[in-house]
Amino acid sequence: MAAIYPVADLARFLAGPWRIARRVADRRSGTTGRLMGIATFTQASGGLRYDERGTLTCGAFRGEAYRSYWLAVGPGRAEAEVRFDDGRLFHTLDLSAGRAEVEHDCGPDRYHGRYRVGGRDGWTLAWQVRGPRKQMIIATRYVRASPALP
Length: 150
What we know:
Layout: H1 10-14, E1 16-26, E2 31-44, E3 47-58, E4 61-72, E5 79-84, E6 89-94, E7 99-106, E8 109-119, E9 122-130, E10 135-144
Antiparallel strand pairs: 1-2, 1-10, 2-3, 3-4, 4-5, 5-6, 7-8, 8-9, 9-10
């Protein structure tokens, strides 16, 4: 994904289903894992709801995994507040330049995320987690599961 694709309308860009492929590397334990699944952004009051479901294989574990977030974003805007399912702020996101760097403190551990939009039908999100409890790299590729809007 060499090119950078600016996003003018985040809700319109993200809406719908995306195939996801995630790699997880836990530097502390030496364990690696993969998640394959679907992430769906649906219209919700005040923005978008993100629901992710897939099969996670990590070490000896193989099972279903899921996650939900809320994105507070208005029509025609490139920025949003990304919130956990319980309403707590995760981070702010602005993809008007087609890429963004974000931070989130989770107790004593710090999450540093990099978003990169490579076109209408694909983007990536990579997290580097550092702290006393976690030393991880989490990289996810999103590919549109249905044709993009014109």
